[in-house]
Every structure is written in structure tokens, then in C-alpha cells.
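Lab manual, section 2.4: Encoding a predicted structure.

Procedure: take the sequence of the chain (267 residues), apply the prediction step described in section 2.3, and record the output as C-alpha cells. A sample record is shown.
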Amino acid sequence: MKKRISPLSKLYLVAIFLILYTPIFFLVFYSFNSGGTMYDFEGFTLDWYRELFHDTRLLIIVLNTIVIALLSALISTIIGVLGALAIHTVTKRQTKNALLSLNNVLIVSPDVIIGASFLILFTIGGIKLGFYSVLLSHIAFCIPIVVLMVLPKLAEMSPSLLDAARDLGASQWDVLTKVIIPYITPGILAGFFMALTYSFDDFAVTFFVTGNGFSTLSVEIYSLARRGISLNINALSALLFIFTMLLVVIYYFITQRNKPRGVGVNR
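Recorded output:
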């Protein structure tokens, strides 16, 4: 029997969504303003988007952001899957809880602290701030996300599947590649897209570790905003928001596709 949502709860949800999304829609709406300001909407235009796509420097920054996001998501997914498998195989409860706590440190820690820590680490290690410092930082804070996405799928997997594979003569490699990996693929894909989203949107950590002329979209938007109001910022932010929403929608469908469904209907 489904629970009915009260009118007060619906009103509360509507109010929350309005508070969260009204400023974003306001920003997107004025990215089409021919007046050049965010005060009076004079007419519809795509000039700000055309100007955006003719900015060579900005296109290079977009390419940098995409490359960093894809590489960090891919590498962190590989490491995260291996980490999740290692944590899952630990039998001692205290050890497993300790490993999970260590994994969650980068998730619960403030971004400013993480960014400052990476900055100090790279400075001491002699690593120049730029592409590699940003990439390493993004890989580091994306790995725990992938681990948290993969572990629930490993927990759902019945040990009888592995026993049956071994009884049929499968080697450890066959069990991993033909039983475990296919079973946890939805979690792996979800972890990849979540890591991609986090890397693409990150500002605080990237702001600390970027340098030598290298920049990403989030840092560039911040720099443009500090120079003054320009509808280029609106256009760029609108495209970034749409791209992020697409990643979230893809992630949602991946997680929903493999949810267990009801076998029958109660009468």
C-alpha cells in the first residue's frame, strides 16, 4: 500500500525546488538578453553564445576540463573498483569499518582543506601546478565516490555465484572477469558518471592546485565573474548546468535500470 503525500509536504517540496532552481533559471534566462544586463530583458538573442564559441581561449579551457574529467573518472574508476573489491574481501568487521572510514575522509572533509592539503603536498613534492596537479587531485577525491558506488553491488552479490563458478572449474581470473565484473557493472558505470560529474564541477580543490596558465571551466567562470557582470558568464554557466544535468540523468537511468522489480501483484 502506497503512502499518500500530504499537501503540506508537497508545498514544502515545491518551495525547496523553487529556492534551489530559481536563481539558475534566472541566470539561464538572461543569457538570452540582447540588452547586455541582468536588469531589463530587452529581447531574445543568441549573440552571447556565439561570442562564447568564438573565444579560442575559452574553447581550450573547455577541452582541458573535459580531458581532466574523463581521465580522472576513468583512472579513479579503475582504482576505485580494485579498492572496493579489496574492502569487500576483508572478513574482520573492525578492519573493514576502518578502511571504509579512511575511504570516506575525502568525502566528508571540507573542499578548502583538501585543496590546501594538495597544494602543500605538491609544493613539497616539487610537482608544478598545472595539468598533472589538477589531474592527481581529481583522481584522489573521485576514488572514494567510486568505492561507495561499487560496494553496494558487491554486497548484493550472492556468494553462491562465486562458489558455482569455482565448482565449474573457473579460475580466479575467470571469476573476476566473467562473474564479478559483469554483476557490478551498473555500480561501476554509476561510479564513473558520478566521478565525471564531480570532476567537471569541482572548483574549490581545483582553485588551489591550478597554475602555469592551466585552467578549468569552474575556475574560469569565477575569474570572469570577478571582472564584472557579463552575459558571457551566463551563457557559459548555462551550458555547464545543462551538461551536468545530462550526466545526472544518465546516472539515474543506469541505477534505475537494474533495480529489482516486483515479481507479482498482491491481491
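Check your result against the sample. The chain has eleven helices and no strands.
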